[in-house]
Amino acid sequence: MITKAIFPVAGLGTRFLPATKANPKEMLPIVDKPLIQYAVEEAIAAGITELIFVTSSSKRAIEDHFDSNFELESALQENGKQDLLDIVRRILPDGVSCAYVRQKSPQGLGHAVACARQLIMNEPFAVLLADDLIDGQPACLKQMVDKFQHTQSSIIAVQQISPTETDRYGIVEPESKDSFTKINNIIEKPPTHLAPSHLGVVGRYILTPTIFDMLENTNKGSGGEIQLTDAIAKLLKRESVYAYQFQGKRYDCGSKLGYLEATVAYALKHPELAEDFKRSLAGFVV
Question: Model pTM?
Answer without folding.
Answer: 0.93
